[in-house]
């Protein structure tokens, strides 16, 4: 308990401290109240409306009330008498004070203007009456709100808390953190890592880290990764893979490292050269050639900055577009980030979901803006020709990479890596012969061959059957894979059965 006292003192001393963006909005409200009767403070997120109103009250005095006072007043009325309760509360406050500051007006307006409220839009009339009475009495009013009601927009100047800059991050965090900790934190790096944090998130992070005297930039990033940057992918459920799991595509990996991973991870170079990841990336190639492995590797590497759209989001379902919109909104809020659209050709196949690609075109074009310019949309496709031509046009897909079947050296390396940890005789096979026998198979096929060969070997040994040379088990498994491929070509499955979830290898 004693350890909390310094932090509590810093919080108590913070009341009059504003960040630059908050200060600019506060100065606007003060000027408006000096020159007129009404002012509005607008904030689209959680960037400190209450903090700004508290500052205005410190400067000018008056009464600061909000939803708590309104609910107490509403208790004396019928639940549907929102307007009467609001009028009664404002009348009493205006009668007692020359200045009344009302916080979170939109929370009352949301209820009063909802489709279920029996007297929809009557709340605007109540606001008009309050403004009229206050003007006649020479009283001043200021409201903090997310949306500005029409009566207020007519007679009050509106001031918005601008998007935070690095200076805002530093000012807010410095109010809660010890100066020695602040000196160890590179706020410019924190801002670049997560530029959309709001005042509440910065406050929570700072209060948490204020109890860690050794906190620094890396610890701040760790906290944000865990508590604020939330992907729609459960990373624990995604197979842990890396670039080393991809064989024979070193040139493709080099492109991804330079044009996607580097702008995310090298803070210094990204800042020095204004680097941004490619806006649109297409990974095209046959099934089993590593497209989804790339997605898994990026998911683990980027964690809370990786967002997935795949076949589990069913096109045409009632919740489809809200899901897609949530993904893009979260990606932009957590930028730099990646939106990974797996099996895009299946989702768009047959033009059955033309609305989605029009939506995606809008999103891709919107990513050119400065606020969204660090979101990369990466798509995988087996048949790029099934994608709408408008998506592939120059400027939207900036990087086109083709995954391919592994060559002899890559096939041998897959066998070597997979068999190295197995006991003899499984690890004693002829790698060169197996590499030759698997010509035309994908990396996923070879992994299946190894698993099937192991199972057959274990089965025969457990049943007392004569054990054959280990190569024969893998050669049998290769033939099964080839037979399955021939059956697949004769009878192509429906598109729905081709849709794979992110957790399965391709």
CATH architecture of the largest domain: 3-Layer(aba) Sandwich
Strand content: 5-15%
CATH class of the largest domain: Alpha Beta
Give the CATH H-level superfamily of the largest domain. Answer: P-loop containing nucleotide triphosphate hydrolases
Find the structural class using helix and strand composition: alpha/beta
Overall geometric form: elongated
Q: How many distinct beta strands?
A: 10
Q: What is the oligomer described by this structure?
A: single chain
Strand order of the largest sheet: 2-3-4-1-5
Tally of distinct domains:
4
Poorly predicted runs are 1-15, 493-506
Tally of helical runs: 25
CATH topology of the largest domain: Rossmann fold
As a percent range, the share of helical residues equals 40-55%
N-to-C span? 54 Å
Main β-sheet, in a few words?
Answer: 5 strands, parallel
Task: Return Rg in Å.
Answer: 30 Å
Mean pLDDT: 84
Model description:
This protein has 506 residues and is an alpha/beta fold. The protein has 4 domains: 141 residues, 3-Layer(aba) Sandwich (Rossmann fold), CATH 3.40.50.300; 62 residues; 167 residues, 3-Layer(aba) Sandwich (Rossmann fold); 86 residues, Helicase, Ruva Protein, domain 3 (Orthogonal Bundle), CATH 1.10.8. Helices cover 53% and strands 9% of the residues. The protein is built from 25 helices and 10 strands. Helix 2 crosses helix 3, helix 4 crosses helix 5 and helix 5 runs parallel beside helix 7. The chain is elongated, with a radius of gyration of 30 Å.
């Amino acid at each position: 308990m004693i350890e909390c006292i310094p932090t509590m003192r810093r919080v108590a001393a913070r009341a009059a401290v504003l960040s630059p963006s908050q200060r600019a909005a506060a100065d606007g409200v003060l000027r408006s109240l000096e020159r007129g009767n009404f002012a509005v403070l607008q904030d689209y997120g959680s960037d400190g409306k209450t903090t700004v109103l508290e500052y205005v009250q410190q400067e000018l005095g008056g009464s600061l009330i909000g939803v708590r006072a309104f609910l107490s007043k509403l208790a004396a009325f019928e639940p549907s008498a929102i307007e009467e309760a609001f009028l009664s509360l404002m009348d009493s406050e205006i009668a007692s004070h020359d200045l009344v500051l009302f916080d979170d007006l939109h929370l009352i307006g949301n209820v009063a203007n909802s489709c279920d409220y029996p007297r929809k839009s009557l709340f605007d009339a109540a606001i008009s009456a309050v403004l009229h009475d206050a003007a006649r009495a020479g009283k001043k009013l200021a409201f903090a709100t997310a949306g500005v009601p029409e009566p207020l927009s007519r007679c009050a100047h509106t001031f918005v808390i601008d998007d935070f800059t690095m200076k805002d991050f530093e000012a807010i965090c410095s109010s809660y953190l010890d100066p020695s900790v602040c000196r160890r934190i590179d706020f410019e790096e924190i801002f670049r890592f997560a530029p959309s944090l709001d005042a509440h998130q910065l406050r929570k992070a700072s209060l948490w880290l204020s109890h860690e005297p050794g906190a620094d930039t890396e610890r701040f990033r760790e906290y944000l990764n865990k508590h604020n940057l939330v992907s729609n992918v459960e990373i624990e459920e995604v197979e842990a893979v890396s670039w080393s799991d991809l064989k024979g595509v070193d040139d493709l990996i080099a492109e991804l490292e330079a044009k996607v991973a580097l702008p995310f991870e090298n803070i210094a170079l990204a800042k020095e050269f204004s680097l941004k990841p490619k806006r649109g990336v297409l990974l095209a190639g046959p099934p089993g050639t590593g497209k989804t492995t790339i997605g898994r590797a990026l998911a683990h590497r980027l964690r809370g900055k990786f967002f997935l759209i795949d076949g589990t989001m069913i096109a045409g379902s009632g919740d489809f577009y809200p899901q897609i919109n949530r993904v893009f909104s979260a990606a932009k809020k957590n930028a730099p980030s990646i939106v990974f659209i797996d099996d895009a050709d299946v989702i768009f196949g047959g033009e059955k979901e033309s609305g989605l690609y029009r939506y995606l075109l809008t999103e891709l074009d919107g990513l050119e803006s400065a606020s969204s310019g660090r979101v990369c949309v990466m798509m995988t496709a087996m048949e790029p020709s099934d994608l709408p031509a408008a998506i592939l046009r120059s400027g939207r897909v900036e990087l086109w990479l083709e995954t391919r079947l592994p060559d002899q050296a890559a096939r041998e390396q897959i066998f070597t890596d997979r068999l190295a940890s197995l006991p003899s005789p499984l690890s004693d096979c002829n790698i060169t012969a197996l590499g030759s026998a698997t010509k035309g198979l994908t990396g996923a096929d070879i992994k299946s061959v190894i698993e099937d060969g192991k199972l057959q070997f274990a089965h025969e040994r457990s049943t007392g059957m004569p054990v054959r040379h280990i190569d024969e088990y893998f050669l049998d498994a290769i033939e099964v894979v080839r037979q399955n491929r021939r059956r697949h070509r004769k009878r192509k499955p429906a598109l729905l059965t081709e849709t794979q979830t992110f957790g399965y290898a391709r």
